[in-house]
Amino acid sequence: MGLSILLLLPLCFPGLMLAGLQGQAPAAEESRREGSSLLLRCPYAAQQRQQLKGWGRLTGGQWKVLLETNPPQNSSTNQITMGRVSVRDNSTSRLLTILVTNLQAEDSGSYCCSLRSPLPGSRPLPLKIISLNVFKEVHRWELDTVSVQCKYRAEEDKATPKVWCRRGPSGCQPWLKTEPSWAESSALGGSALGGSALGGRALIQDDPQAGVVTVTMRRLQAQDAGTYWCALHGAWQPARLMELRLYVSKRTKHCRAKESEQLSVQCLYNPSEYSPVSKAWCRAAAGEPCSLLLSTEVEAPGLLRRSQRGRVAIQDDSLQGIVTVSMSSLQAQDSGVYWCALREQDVLLRMAEVVLSVPGGNRGGESSCGKPEDLAQVGSTERVERARGGSKDLKYATLRFGAQPSPQDALYCNLEPSQAHRGPRAEDVQYASIGLQQLPASGKG
C-alpha cells in the first residue's frame, strides 16, 4: 500500500518529490464566509527566487494555474492582478502572497500556491496546498423563508441524487433527497426538521440541465438554526457542494403584569401569507411541547376571528395581520412563557414568545405589553451579530442607549475586538463618530 501511494504522488503532483517540497504538509481547510476575502502567504526557498509564482486550482486531478507572475525583472516585487485574484511575489523576503476578494460559494475547492520553471512546457508545482470552503451565512427571523442554490458539474453529476443534510456530531444527516427523476423532490421518510415534519416546510429541486440544486426552507423556527450542506449522495458519505450556516432569531417580549388585572398582548404577522392559517396561544415549558390553550377557527366568517375559553381570549385581525390575546384575573401561577403561534395540522409554529411575570401581592393598576410594533423589533438586550467559524471579517453591533447623550458628544466603536489585547498600530484602528440630533421636548426615544 505504501509503495502504491509513492508511485501515484508524482502523477497527481508532478515534481512533488523535488528538493524543497518533500516536507509538504497535508492540505489544511480554510473556511471563509461568502463575500469575504482570503489572504494566503507562502514562503519559498532562496533557490526558487527565479521561478514563476502563481495561484492554481485542482481540476480533474491536475493543477490548473489561474494566475501567474511574469518572469522576474530587476524589481524585488512582482505583482499581477486579474479580476478578484492578486498574486504578489517579494523576492527579497522570499514570500508569495495571494489575495482573493469577494469569495463565492462556487469558489470552494482545492488550491495551491504554485511554482514553475520559466522554461517552456514546464509544469506547476504546489508550494502550499489548501482546501477552501466558502460558506453562505444567513440570518433570519422566525417564520421567514430561506432559499439557496447549489451548483454542480451538470454532465458528470446530473444522475447522482442530491441531498440536503444537517451537520452534527455524527456527520451530515440527510433531511431531503431528490428522486431519481431529478425534477421531483421529496422528504426522507420519517425525517424531521426542528421537531416538526418536513413535508410543508422544506423543498429540494434539481435542474440537471442547468446543474443547479435549489433548497427552500419556509416558516423557520429558532431550532432550525445550524450548519447545512447541499451535497451529492455518495455511497459512503455526502460530498459537499455548498455549506449554509443558518441563524434564526426569535421575537421575544417581556411582560410584567399585576394580580387580578388583565393582560393584553399583540403579535404581528404577514397577512398576505398567513391570513388563512389558524392562530393559537399556548404555554411552553422547558423540554416539553407548547401546550395549546386556545386557537382561532379558520372557517369562521369575517375578517375578525375570535375565540374565548375561561379567562383567555384570542382575536385574529386577518386584514391587518394582528393577533390579540387577553388574559383576565391574572394570578401569580400565570407567570411563565407563552407563544403566539400558527396552528397547522396540530403543529404549532412560534410567531413570538411572551415571557409573563405576575408577582404575588401586587394588586391594582393596569397591565399591558405595549404596542403591536414592539414585537416586530429586536429584543430588549443588545444584539451582536458576528461571523462564525473562524471568519476574520468585521463584527456588527446594534447599539442601544439608556439615556440620550448630548448632541456634542461623540461615540467611538472599535470594529475589531480581537485587537484589544495588543497595542494597535495606527493603520489597524478603525472607528466611527456618531452624531446625535436633539429631539423635540415632546419627542419619545
Task: Write up what this structure looks like.
There is one protein chain. It contains three helices and 30 strands. The chain has helices spanning 2-12, 154-157, 271-274; strands spanning 28-33, 38-43, 52-59, 62-68, 77-82, 85-90, 95-100, 109-116, 125-141, 146-151, 162-168, 171-178, 185-187, 192-193, 196-197, 202-207, 212-217, 226-232, 239-249, 252-256, 263-268, 278-284, 291-295, 304-309, 312-317, 322-327, 336-344, 347-357, 384-385, 396-397. A hairpin with a 6-residue loop joins strand 22 (278-284) and strand 23. It is elongated and about 90 Å long. The N and C termini lie far apart (72 Å).
Taking all residues together, what is the mean pLDDT?
77
What sort of overall outline do the alpha carbons produce when their principal axes are compared? elongated
Per DSSP, the total helix count is 3
At the fold tier of CATH, the topology name of the largest domain is Immunoglobulin-like
Tell me about the largest β-sheet: 10 strands, mixed
User: Could you tell me the radius of gyration in angstroms?
Assistant: 29 Å
Class of secondary structure makeup? mainly beta
CATH homologous superfamily of the largest domain, by name? Answer: Immunoglobulins
Low-confidence stretches: 1-23, 181-199, 371-445
Total number of strands: 30
**Alpha-carbon distance between the termini?**
72 Å
Strand content: 35-45%
Proper CATH architecture of the largest domain: Sandwich
Overall helicity: under 10%
Question: What CATH first level of the largest domain would be assigned?
Answer: Mainly Beta
